[in-house]
């Protein structure tokens, strides 16, 4: 079959189960010029690689817990077993859905003329088929393990806001991965890939970063998916068909509707650098903040921190500027007494930071790319970094909590955070290693209680068999302790994004307390 009929087959089979007619879609990613398109495609390819690595780690967890999935369905799961099953499913759901977002963002490559726009056509195929083969290899493996187990399916399909799981997530997952159209796209795409190689060379994509990886990944994932379809396809499809027949709900959670999928893609591309929180809101909030404040942040549709559950994906430590440090700490008797016990008896807290970390202090005094003073320490993909308000606070949602601790405890926490600055980001979310740190790990370890420091007692939770701390847990603790004399945080502010209105509004403490219960991926954000 030639390339043109193959594309016609692909396009004809692209439809998903019937859904309401979509509204008019905004501009797609293919409206970008070639350079901007390729740059975005390379970023999404890096995201796809991270998703794939995460799914492979989850496969190891599934192997270790194989007996749990094979447990007799007449034996009820214990609370600990339920937690393990749900955290694994929540992480899998994250990786799978974020991969589907990438796939649908580039789906229109089938409408882009290969001869006239070779770069867009070639890169669009790489992202689309790379995402599809990843979904099917890992999705069919998970479906084979879970399919037909009634107690397990009921558990996975129930809404679990604390894990970031909406109602019927598991049913929608099965509907997507066990579907004849998706499977046909796998075979069609594998054939088209071989015919597309000359175009990949012409587009200059073959030797680009991660392209050899994704081509090899397509091959490996396709082999896995084909093997599962040959071995178990009839059983999986028969069971899925029965489930779909019984399922009459109309609201699709997965972004399979074209208008929704394109809107998600456009949000990231066209609203990038245009967060819902305005700069004047950030400037006003800074006037109310103090060194040591803990922030939780969220940007819609940015596929970061995939694998950790909950609405809030990110946490940061507010430090303030050097003058703010001086105003806040230097007159405090407790801080003075502590400084007097340190080598060299530094006169000020800033002086102690400069002496303890001369290179880091020098970096902290610099300006960011926007000309702003650095005020925040956060762990991002580049590592534990000093950042300014444009990066750390101009997001879509921002909550600020103030630890109910002495100023000397906050000074010790900031001192620890300075010590972690420069260390790599922890993509494995391993809280037992100090060599790499995830965002919440930075906050947690900076405020960890010790003999000389009261600190914050925020318990770790089990996520995919590991002890870790999603940012959502910080807000859950805030909510659980609300009104108690021994509460660990006070409320400072909540800037609540409104995607439909294109802005953020100041919300009250009650709204912030509820925020951690919001669905992580629901398009109709509350």
Automatic annotation (TrEMBL):
Residues 1-23 form the signal peptide. The keyword Disulfide bond does not apply. Residues 38-75 form a coiled coil. It comes from the Bacteria. The keyword Signal applies. Keywords: Coiled coil, Signal. InterPro entries: Papain-like_cys_pep_sf (IPR038765). This is Protein tyrosine phosphatase.
